[in-house]
Amino acid sequence: MKKTEIPGIYKDRNQYFTINPVKGFKVYNERIIKIKGKEYRSWNPYRSKLAAALLNDLKFEIKPSNNVLYLGAATGTTVSHISDILSDGIVYAVESAPVSMKKLLNVCDKRKNIIPISEDAFHPDRYSSIVPRVDLVYQDISQRNQSEIFVKNMNRYLKKEGLGLIMVKARSIDVSLKPKKAYEQVCKDLEENNLKIKKIVDLSPFEKDHAAILAGY
Asked: Which of 44, 58, 64, 212 is 20 to 30 A from 167, comparing alpha carbons?
């Protein structure tokens, strides 16, 4: 098991791992490897778009002390790995679907650095009393207006030197467009709102017609 450039993320051959702070607890039936008293959770790129992006050479900075606003937390698969990384930070996990939130709460019950927020990410002001300025805004929401949601939250919550990472599903943007054109459309939307595109990473073969777009001010 080797350390990577990102503190808290480890690699063994072509697989990423994070250290499990809740020994014996699995979030999505992931594989656990025990080494010298520590549990390493396998990070499945077919279940987590962030793992897919990292395997496809996404490079970005996240520190153990960072705070992260996660939009579209779903049942907590990727949230849990970010929680592992943020040993001294907080994940603010926003999810609007009641069924997903119920499962997410089970994860939060075991991990005290995840703050679940049952709210619509299209209305960022609704959780302004809970969420401070953050180092990373992460979004995984498959909606046609995902760019608008991302921009609203970036403007409201991102620190000046922070980063935003949006997972784009091409077919959610426009089913008539080829994936590359859909990604270009999202980039154009972000640039029109004063965001700078730092990296675009296609998520194939782990996720079809998806890309991760890294942006900042």
From this structure: 64
Query: Per-residue confidence of the chain (217 residues) as pLDDT tens digits?
Result: 999 999 999 999 899 999 999 999 999 999 999 999 999 999 999 999 999 999 999 999 999 999 999 999 999 999 999 999 999 999 999 999 999 999 999 999 999 999 999 999 999 999 999 999 999 999 999 888 999 999 999 999 999 999 999 999 998 988 888 888 999 999 999 999 999 999 999 999 999 999 999 999 9
Where do we find the tokens 């207006």?
145
Domain residue spans in the chain? 44-216
Tell me which residue of 124, 1, 134, 136 sits closest to 78, measured CA to CA.
136
Is the Cβ–Cβ distance between 116 and 83 less than 8 Å? Answer: no
Please give the CATH architecture assigned to the domain spanning 44-216: 3-Layer(aba) Sandwich (3.40)
Is the pTM of the predicted complex or chain greater than 0.90?
Answer: yes
